[in-house]
Structure formats: structure tokens, C-alpha cells
Amino acid sequence: MNKIIQLHPADNVGVLLQDMKQGDVLDFKGQRLTLQSDIGFGHKVALTPIGQGEHVLKYGLPIGSATRDIAAGEHVHVQNIISNYQQPQEP
Question: Which residue did the predictor score with more confidence, 10 or 89?
Fold first, then answer.
């Protein structure tokens, strides 16, 4: 059974189809991704490295921009991306 899905061929993130633990290894399209943290069902994981300021692509569209470098296998969520659809929050 697949544990991850890429919703569009251009996406640099995949969506987990089950809860997974740090250190788990995903085989995806000939590459091995080692998860950098526990990641829950339905959450995004970087399929490739994403540089700070680069777009995060899901559904083939930019859904946000990386606020720091994101390694392949890392959880992609509010801690490392900012939405393209809202104003940045002041700390």
C-alpha cells in the first residue's frame, strides 16, 4: 500500500496517507525519503529540498513559500512555510 501521494507531477510535496514516525523511510518514485520527524496522516512532506523563499507546490500550484530551507523528508507546515494567501504576522 502506498504511504504517500503526489497530487500533481510538479508538486515538491507529497501527502501522507497514514501517520508515520521519525526515521521511517518512504520509497517514492525511485527515491528513499527518511522522515525527519513524526508526521500525521494528511500532512505534507518535502519530496525534494525546498530553498528559503521558494514556492511550495501542491496541486501543481504554489500554496506558500518556504520561510527557511526545508530538507527532503521534512514536515512541511506552518513552522516552515507562509501562505501565499495571507499577510505575514508580526512576531
Answer: 10
